[in-house]
Structure formats: structure tokens, C-alpha cells
């Protein structure tokens, strides 16, 4: 695959993940799309023997943790924003 295309795809997925992770708590599942796709990709690669746990643990662990942390931070920010909005409505 073309390295420039790979970079563009990675940037688009990252931007989507940041955007989706900060959606309203009502749509919490949007931020889970990218981690779910990543998990499915890892399982498929593992089943086809393209990755091994012993050799590729860093490639598997760190992106997974980063994706989940972005999702968690985004959800926390969305909950705070929703709480602030509700508090502002109550003051009116």
C-alpha cells in the first residue's frame, strides 16, 4: 500500500475517533467503533498467522490502550459538557 495513502487513512481514522469519542453520552457507542474495528482486525490477523503474540505484543497493546484511553477521556469530557449544559439550564 502507498505510504502516503496509509498516512491519510490513519489521520482520517484518528480524527473520526477523536470526534466520535466526544459525542453526547447518549451516543457513547460511536467512540467504540474504532477500538472495535481494531480488535476485529487484530483477531483476523492473528487467525491468519500474520501476527504472533510473543513478537507483536507492543504493536497490539499500545494502540489498544491509546484507543481506549481516547474513548474514555472523550466520554468524560462529553459527560462534563452535558452536565454543564444541564446546570446552565437549571440556573435559567
Describe the structure.
The protein is an all-alpha fold. Helix content is 79%, strand content 0%. It has one domain. It is built from 3 helices and no strands. The longest helix has 39 residues, at 53-91. It is elongated. The model has no long low-confidence stretch (mean pLDDT 84).
Order of helices and strands: HHH
Number of strands: 0
* Fraction of residues in H or I helices: over 70%
The shape is elongated
**Share of β-strand residues:** under 5%
Biggest β-sheet: count, sense, barrel?
none
User: Spans with pLDDT under 50 lasting ≥5 residues?
Assistant: none
Average pLDDT score: 84
- Please state the structural category: mainly alpha
The end-to-end distance, rounded to whole angstroms, is: 56 Å
Rg, Cα atoms, Å: 17 Å
Summed up, the helix count is: 3
Provide the domain count: 1
Distinctive features:
single chain; 3 helices; elongated
Helix-strand blueprint:
Elements: H1 3-21, H2 33-47, H3 53-91
Short summary of the structure?
This protein has 92 residues and is mainly alpha-helical. The protein has helices spanning 3-21, 33-47, 53-91. It has one domain (3-91).
Amino acid at each position: 500500500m502507498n505510504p502516503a495513502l496509509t498516512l491519510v487513512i490513519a489521520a482520517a481514522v484518528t480524527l473520526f475517533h477523536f470526534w466520535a469519542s466526544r459525542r453526547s453520552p447518549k451516543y457513547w457507542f460511536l467512540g467504540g467503533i474504532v477500538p472495535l474495528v481494531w480488535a476485529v482486525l487484530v483477531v483476523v490477523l492473528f487467525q491468519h498467522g500474520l501476527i504472533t503474540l510473543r513478537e507483536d505484543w507492543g504493536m497490539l497493546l499500545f494502540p489498544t490502550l491509546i484507543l481506549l484511553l481516547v474513548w474514555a477521556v472523550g466520554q468524560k469530557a462529553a459527560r462534563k459538557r452535558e452536565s454543564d449544559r444541564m446546570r446552565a439550564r437549571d440556573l435559567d
